[in-house]
Target: LacI family transcriptional regulator
Amino acid sequence: MAEKVTIATVARRARVSRQTVSNVLNAPHMVREETRERVREAISALGYRANQAARQMRTGRSRLIAVRIEPTRDGVNGSVLDRFLHGLTEAAEAAGYRVMLYTAPDPRAEIDAYDSLLGAYDLDAFVLTGTEYGDARTAWLTERDVPFVTFGRPWDNPAETAPQGRTAVPARHPWVDVNGADGVAQATRRLLDTGHRRIGFVGWPAGSGVGDDRRSGWHDTLLTAGLDPTGLDRAAPDGFAQGEAAARDLLASAEPPTAIVCASDSLALGALQAVGAPGGWPAGPGQRPEVAVTGFDDTPVAQAIGLTSVSQPLAQAAACCVDLLADVLDGSRRGGAAGHRRSDPASSGPGQVLLRPSLVVRQSG
Model:
């Protein structure tokens, strides 16, 4: 009869104490990377499986976190959340957590889902995506003392939003975000450096925290360069057809732009259609279109067709979210864990991480 594999068995094989094995399973941040790898190799070789029920009774925690799958949109920018979820699942597993996925068509339905999920499952925490002005989800969870982290900044100041009748968003909670304004500024500065002076912008209608942030990167960069951005931007809902219509409108103006920066790859793909209508798109090998087009999110479609785009560090953002949740749930500030990933000094403080994106230059300009 085969010997039952226990924590003690793993400890002997890895040449560590049983407490160290327990720490690797329950609080991996407390163990050095070299030791963690040795213990994990022993766990894999022996086929050890921790008794989750026993662990939950011992710690009072399920080590289960929930995150929403956003509704399918155009099949392009939806891939951004897919990559984030993939990174989140990997990072959570490495930290000893499991991810539960759920659906909700809008924020109100998502709050209803919180209520149902908390009643049906022993969840440790939530990861929220897509923060917005007056985000009622963060207020709901905070009022009920439910741990959470957001992939996205809180866009409101409670003192400013309350008098306007909007739900006040807690001023400080753990969050990870990508600096969209900086990404668009990188794209705009590069176009300026290559000689463009009339640079247009196609973004989402005002009122989107993410969209407003990305637009500010274009607007402020032109002002800093001594250029007037007036009349060079158009707003449109996210989508190919909408991006094409907005870009056509820009190109039909008395002084059309020689380059267009877009708030998403979906809008940029539409802009490429508008740019390509007179002379054909794509341009020949090694050639660039007359009007340069830049997107945001560096989706697989952008990579396939040669669209210049801003790339978000999604795997890094997901890992930071897990780090911050572990800080909250384990009741310890692990010093460097999330801090080592702070690539932008604009992070607001402990538990709040702002990452810098990068511009990927391709054929589209």
Summary: The first helix runs from residue 7 to 14. The CA atoms of residues 133 and 207 lie 7 Å apart. Residues 158-170, 278-283, 332-348 have pLDDT under 50 and may be disordered.
